[in-house]
Amino acid sequence: MDSEEERKYALEKLNSEEVQNFIDEHNISNLILFGSLNHGEFNEISDVDIALLNEEKISLDTILELELFLENLLNRPIDVVDLRSEKLDLFVKINILNNGKVLFSKDNNKMFDIICDEVDRTYRENENFMYFRRIDVLS
To answer: Where do the Polymerase beta nucleotidyltransferase domain residues begin and end (predicted)?
Structure first.
């Protein structure tokens, strides 16, 4: 299989009923695809990057279970992140929200819009701090 066929296969599997059932069983509001599979640089050694979103933080058990489920389904490494996690870098969140593709949404992207507003507000509140920190680091 060439890279484009692998990409199509992975997207087809991610949009499958199997994945939808997993999302439903674990009450996940949104599943967002980001990274190389989403923006066309996917190849035979690429992993698949998935962001999850819910009203509350998603448990580590659920994240690990989804990673294992998708690794078995796609036969490749999977990285799953929770957009509600405080440990996830703000700029990573911004990148996911700006460039990610929502594959599943139980709430017509309501949660996605809420997290976009929250991340935007956090960025604006800390914009000056980040600017001066960057200058400090570069000097």
So the answer is: 17-108
Distance (Å) of CA 74 to CA 26, 42, 106? 19, 13, 23
The DSSP code sequence of 7-47 is HHHHHHHHTSHHHHHHHHHTT-SEEEEESHHHHT---TT--
Is 19 a residue whose pLDDT tops 90?
yes
Helix axes 17-25, 3-14, angle to 10 degrees: 40
Q: What is the DSSP letter of 139?
A: -
For the chain, the straight-line distance linking the first and the last C-alpha, in angstroms and rounded, comes to 48
pLDDT for 47-103, tens place per residue? 999 999 998 999 999 999 999 999 999 999 999 999 999 999 998 999 999 999 999
Structural domains of the chain, ranges and CATH numbers in brackets? 3-138 (3.30.460.10)
User: Is the pLDDT confidence value at 110 over 90?
Assistant: yes
Q: Residue 34 is encoded by which pair of tokens?
A: 């980001």
Average confidence score pLDDT of the chain: 90
Cα–Cα distance measured from residue 117 to residue 123, given in angstroms and rounded to the nearest whole number: 10
